[in-house]
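Blinded run. Sample ID left blank on purpose so nobody reads anything into the name before looking at the predicted structure. Input follows.
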Amino acid sequence: MRYSKLKLWQIGNETSYETSCFDKEEAIAHTIQFARAMRPVDASIKLIEWGDRGRDGKLWARDMEKQAGEFIDLVAIHMMSQTPKRPETALEGLRYQQDPARAWDELLELSDDVERRVVEIEQATQMPIAIKEGHLSLGAHNINPIQWLTAAYHARSLNIYQRHGARVRIATAADLQGSRWTTTSVMTPTPRGRSYLMPAGSIAALFRKHNGTHGVAVRSAPAGLDVAAGRAGDTLYLHVANVLYYRAVEASFPGTRGGRVIEIAPENLRSYVNQDQPDVFRPCETELKAATWRFPAGSVSAVKLALSVER
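Blinded prediction complete.
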């Protein structure tokens, strides 16, 4: 018997969003049908069911788990419809250029929606969660030129996923790649043939590279810093977003023996990346010589700390 190298399969995608798709009961029946056909071929695969909201606003996850849970390993939703909420938004077109601080605040407000959505799906099902897709939806439709101003949204969203890591097993910062969308992680080859990371991709790469193997609860942090933590052996990893637009924030790290800070900290928070400056958001690494660090306004950092552990 030949086994596929593909071990992770999702059955159904955005099935609940359109009237032309299966309804919930049909989707559940087909999910069970597919799972029963696939597992005998390769028992090592992991299967993801679709559990997001239907057109009536209700999540499918609870009924999917109840009827198909024995066949499935994870339940999926998408972090969609991340659109401006204020009537006179600064996130439409080029308005952010007139009031970038307000645009920054609005994007932080949108990250609150991410937290609410995660809590909602956690309460609806006991299954592990896969957030397989999701991006900001800013006008003009998905080609809004806003760039580093989205950093607080992306970094805080990833921190939310990590803090909920006991349940959220798969998560994405944005769509993977595209040739024009500013909502992607990677901008694919331009006419000059060079690909580069967008802010979402730069932040995701930073956090992915410098991360622990086990989650650590963050009990307190200086005002203005959004922090998620992980640990691998005697090394503590912090993912830090300074969500303040105008002010740096200093933090101390008692109980540590030095470490390193790897940060993306543009002097101008309206900075942007393109084919002519593809490395503008490349992280800079600095040795932490004291048990304190001053996080620049609007910066995103990974902090790697050696813990003082008694043997």
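Unblinding after everyone has recorded impressions. Helices lie at 24-38, 61-68, 100-124, 151-163, 199-209.
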